[in-house]
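Reopening this one. Same input as before:
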Amino acid sequence: MDFLKKHYEKVLLGVVFVGLAVAAAFLPVKISSEKQKLEDLRTTLTHRTVKPLTNQDFTVAEDALKRVATPAFVDFSSTNRLFNPMSWQQTRDGKLLRQDKAGPSAATVTNLTPLYLRLSFDAVNVSPDGTAKYGIGVQKEASPNAGQRTKRQTYMKVGDKNEIFTLSAVNGPPDNPTNVVLTFNDTDKQVALSKDQPFKRVDGYMADIRYEPEKQFWPARRVGSSLVMNGETYNIVAITQNEVVLSAKSNQKKWTIKSNVAP
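Same output, byte for byte:
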């Protein structure tokens, strides 16, 4: 007892040193154990066993992809008036009409008549010196000049040229040929005319046009004619076998009236 009383501090210090030595010796084992636990946990989380997928229904997703692949069409012109409001026009009798029910949009082509270029071999004129000239009848039904819409006679010798054709050749005796050959200046196409075989081709059309909102009817209108619809003047600038093109006199805006009438 006297020893412990005299040396208890040394004994206590020795016990502490022994405890520290044991702790120092156990620490690597503890660290290694903790590392293994952490590695096991990481392996469990990153290498999780995945169950095989069962048959899945992807119908909804596939339908959605098909809808996305098809571009949506939004009509902002004919049915939607939020971005394209339709204007209204007042007629001369005070009625209000939608824009598509007034003016050229409401006009209709009720008839189309073809206009022909007609050519005929009519006569032979032999001068005293023996030069032969051949009478060719020309009728330009589509001409803006009313005087050219009726048949007129022109006398030409071989090689002569006018604004339409050239007299290229004469077949048969010069004073009584079987036919004459004409070459068109615009196409270089050749035609043979005899006294019993004239020629014609379509050179234009004239149209009958009706404007129902004002009960207007314009028959036999040609290119260059004017129409007044709802107080606005329109000029006919073109007529084809299936449409009439109008131009507003005020702003030169073009309007096309389609026709379902066969000429």
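So the earlier flakiness isn't reproducible anymore. For the record, DSSP finds two helices and 14 strands in the chain.
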